Amino acid sequence: MTLEFTLATARDALRARRISARELTEAHLAAIDALEPELHAFITVTPEQALAQADAADAALGRGEGGPLTGLPVAIKDLFCTKGVRTTAASRILEPFVPPYESTVTANMLRDGAVFLGKTNLDEFAMGSSTTTSAFGATINPWQRRGANTQLVPGGSSGGSAAAVAAGMALASTGTDTGGSIRQPASFCGIVGMKPTYGRCSRFGVVAFASSLDQPGPFARTVEDTAILLGSMAGHDPKDSTSVNRPVPDYAAACRRGVRGLRIGIPREYHSDGMPAEIEALWTQGIAWLREAGAEIVDVSLPHTKYGLATYYIVAPAEASSNLARYDGVRFGLRVPANDLTDLYEETRAAGFGAEVRRRILIGTYVLSAGYYDAYYLKAQKVRALILRDFTDAFERVDALLTPTAPSAAFALGEKNDDPVQMYLNDVFTVPASIAGVPGISVPAGVDGDGLPLGLQVIGRHFDEETVFAVGSVLEQAAEFSAKPAIRMEAGR
Asked: For residues 425-443, b (16+ Cβ closer than 10 Å) or e, as one string?
């Protein structure tokens, strides 16, 4: 029963003293011990720190004190700097790096009493859609196709965070979303994942991939749980120039609003060629659920979103090539000895970066180079402005948008590794919202013919996460998603 808690029910049980934070933490550490060899969801586990934090939480609760997350065991994507705990970004170049400071998001969570179980696996520098580009090995999705034991990817780049929550190894977790890296793995793993508005959560202390797109957000098993966690993660931070100074609403309360009277837009461009019939049918069912709950369904157009992937894979690698220039073997991280400075740079970066990171650095450097800047990067920025305008125009007519989260269920490990373009197409439904900087949530709403989870995505206006949570909660209640992954602690493994 201990691992069946949600974040909200565990919080209530802790406050009522029906369970202790230490008992809750020990149960999740035991789940990690049992399942980690099979799933590889973590890069670093911190049992001593977790138990010390749990004991401090019990002491605070015993005094009648505590914050919104006091005593709740969660996992942290290994892209967030954590003071005194190794932060690798799943790359050999950062393998020895132990930050002397805490990211703002994790500091906020510690302030509110969270217990950190460890650092989760990801695609190297968050570049990927499968969590197979990690220098520390691939994460395995706890779900399996019905009647088969083929290993499946958990999505990416935040696949370790999603797998940990789906398998019962953590109550919730943090992720980052640059082009879909929270929403797509949430869909693949049958949990809820929320990308807030760009600027809602501080990026200070988060290892950068593409600075104008990266945004931290929560994973959990319910919409309410993601709302609770985002309430702690969010907030203005003067250390981040892109952090927006706006009050943080009561997101959990918004989950109880309902959708009566809301106008929900259905973007016609998201009916892509070759979309599986099961995903099309689930989308149709989601529309029916919202209509039955009192929402008005409106057909809308986002004409420039068809250029979203092409725009993203120019802008994001360009920013990555700039951000990753700091990893040179001089200041921090890996250093490969060499005869001169040029060789030091070359040897360190060759040894430290994996194939996908090198690919994106090369693409980014190319599109920023003399003679190609105008043809590629500048044009992509112009198209990005048009994509943003499409969303702005649509939100003059509707309160939120409903789309599929991903174009497929989880695919097999290694299935698309040899074709980067096919891997990039996983983000076709999530990238446009990232380019526009608007919030989006993925809610598990059904399963395909193989019994694998499928998600529906709700997209909202800038800084209107409350409406996104309200719509997501109605979908969650209507879907009554109760399927469980094959690999889970309760299965007796």
From this structure: bbbbbbbbbbbbbbbbbbb
484 given a catalytic annotation: no
Q: What pLDDT score was predicted for residue 452?
A: 98
Among 77, 119, 195, 416, the active-site one is 77
Q: How far is CA 41 from the centre of its chain?
A: 14
What does the DSSP assignment read for 4-41?
Answer: G--HHHHHHHHHTTSS-HHHHHHHHHHHHHHHHHHH--
Query: pLDDT tens for residues 443-456?
Result: 999 999 999 999 99
Residue 492: which pLDDT band, with cuts at 50, 70 and 90?
A: very low
Whether the pTM exceeds 0.90: the reply is yes
Residue ranges of domains in the chain, CATH in brackets: 2-256 (3.90.1300.10)
* Average of per-residue pLDDT across 231-256: 98
The Cβ of residue 376 has, within 10 Å, a number of other Cβ atoms equal to 18
The alpha carbon of 5 is separated from its chain's Cα centroid by a whole number of angstroms, namely 21
Query: Which listed residue (91, 129, 134, 157) is catalytic?
Result: 157
- Cα-based distances in Å from 453 to 138, 286, 477: 20, 15, 16
Catalytically annotated residue among 130, 158, 161, 181: 181
**CB neighbour list of residue 113: distance below 8 Å, 6 or more residues apart:** 57, 60, 66, 67, 68, 69, 70, 71, 72
Do 356 and 123 touch, CB atoms closer than 8 A?
A: yes
Per-residue pLDDT reduced to its tens digit, 411-459 = 999 887 666 766 767 889 999 999 999 999 999 999 999 999 999 999 9
Residue 485 sits at φ, ψ, to 5 deg, of -70, 155
Q: Cβ distance 301 to 403 under 8 Å?
A: no
CA–CA separation, 142 vs 148, rounded Å? Answer: 13
Active-site residue flag, 181: yes
